[in-house]
Design brief:
Elements (H helix, E strand, L loop, with lengths): L5 E7 L32 E6 L7 H4 L2 E3 L19 E6 L2 E5 L5 E5 L5 E5 L30 E8 L5 E5 L5 H8 L17 E5 L7 E5 L26 E6 L9 H15 L8 E5 L5 H16 L4 E3 L8 H12 L2
Parallel strand pairs: 1-3, 2-4, 9-11, 9-12, 12-13, 13-14
Antiparallel strand pairs: 1-8, 2-7, 5-6, 5-8, 10-11
The protein binds guanosine-5'-triphosphate and magnesium ion (MG).
Guanosine-5'-triphosphate binds next to α2.
Length: about 325
């Protein structure tokens, strides 16, 4: 399925129904008083966060969303019917902005969280409201109020506890498939993963956490090279980054260079990303030449004050240690 994380849509709440001008007509009552009922309220437009939708794809096909108008009032003091609210389902993690000034109106980060984005107009009063002792036959009623309308910009930023970053082919998707039920495509060519994937990890008796696998980053991604850095927004809200390094293939055989290149891209995206705790892990130690080099790399990182965790996403060696570290870091 196509992954869409931005959409601009137009929403319009319903107008209130018109109030009615009417006079009572009954046998033997020659001049009945006014009995025009009120108009009903127009429907509101409401966003609701759901786990049923994972992307904003639906909004690419449907841009206009309108709630129904309230019914008009009628004689015999009958109030017009109020229109039902229009509820629009969006994935959890959707940020709702005013499309004109990009002001954030709401951030729907919990299931079933709702936000009324446009209020329906209230119904107009019928003439029955306007009778006074000096004016017993009001021949007027109110129109209903207009419903609110506006252009809205929806932006989805996935919610996860841990984001996996690294060069293409580092083994990010292999890692997530190993520790969760997520099954992104895995292949030995760069940019296999084109959209983010979420997985739920249950490790020992710690509370489960959500991990996000995103497309690989490369040097110059902030200038649009490769897949660019736009999808970093899906790990923007994580509390921890898992940085996977792979030194098994040219031209990325220098772990430290890998590490700094990726962090430079994070910095270009948003320097606050560097403030997140990062667990740095060296993958593919099942390959003899990687295992051999690993010791040296670990020592080199240690000198810079960083713990490098060697592991193999394929055999599972070293995985437990990484998961333990993740669990203790996010529960700090
Ligand atoms: N030998 C070995 N190969 C691995 C290991 N982990 C991943 N691979 C291989 O490395 C290649 C890339 O793995 P992916 O998991 O698709 O890498 P990725 O980081 O998700 O790549 P992109 O989606 O392109 O960014 C695949 O051929 C995997 O089988 C490992 O621990 N050992
Ligand atoms: Mg991948």
């Amino acid at each position: 399925m196509k992954f869409v994380d931005e959409a601009k849509i137009y929403i319009k709440a319903g107008h209130g129904g018109r109030g009615c001008v009417s006079f009572r007509r009954e046998k033997f009552v020659p001049r009945g008083g006014p009995d025009g009922g009120d108009g009903g309220k127009g429907g509101d437009v409401i966003f609701r966060a759901t786990e049923k939708h994972r992307t904003l794809l639906d909004f690419k096909y449907r841009q206009h969303h309108m709630a129904k108008n309230g019914g008009h009032g009628s004689g015999n003091n009958r109030t017009g019917r109020s229109a039902a609210d229009l509820e629009i389902l969006v994935p959890v993690g959707t940020i709702i902005k005013d499309a004109e000034n990009m002001e954030v109106l709401a951030d729907l980060s919990q299931v079933d969280q709702v936000f009324v984005v446009a209020r329906g107009g209230i119904g107009g009063k019928g003439n029955a409201h306007f009778a006074t002792s000096t004016h017993q036959t009001p021949r007027f009623a109110q129109d209903g109020m207009d419903g609110e309308e506006r252009w809205i910009f929806l932006e989805l930023k996935l919610l996860a506890d841990v984001g996996i970053i690294g060069f293409p082919n580092a083994g990010k998707s292999t890692f997530i498939s190993r520790v969760s039920a997520a099954r992104p495509k895995i292949a030995d060519y760069p940019f296999t993963t084109l959209t983010p994937h979420l997985g739920v990890v249950k490790h020992s008796n710690a509370e489960s956490f959500v991990i996000a696998d995103i497309p690989g980053l490369i040097s110059g991604a902030h200038e649009g090279v490769g897949m660019g850095i736009k999808f970093l927004k899906h790990v923007e809200r994580t509390s921890l980054l898992l940085h996977i390094i792979d030194i098994s293939a040219e031209p990325y055989t220098d772990a430290w260079k890998n590490y700094t290149a990726i962090n430079n891209e994070l910095d270009c995206y948003d320097s606050s990303m560097l403030a997140k705790p990062q667990i740095v892990a060296l993958n593919k130690i099942d390959l003899p030449f990687v295992r051999e080099k690993a010791k040296k790399e670990v020592a080199l990182f240690k000198k810079k004050g960083i713990i490098l965790h060697p592991f193999s996403a394929v055999t599972g060696e070293g995985l437990d240690k990484i998961l333990n570290k993740i669990v203790t870091t996010i529960n700090k």
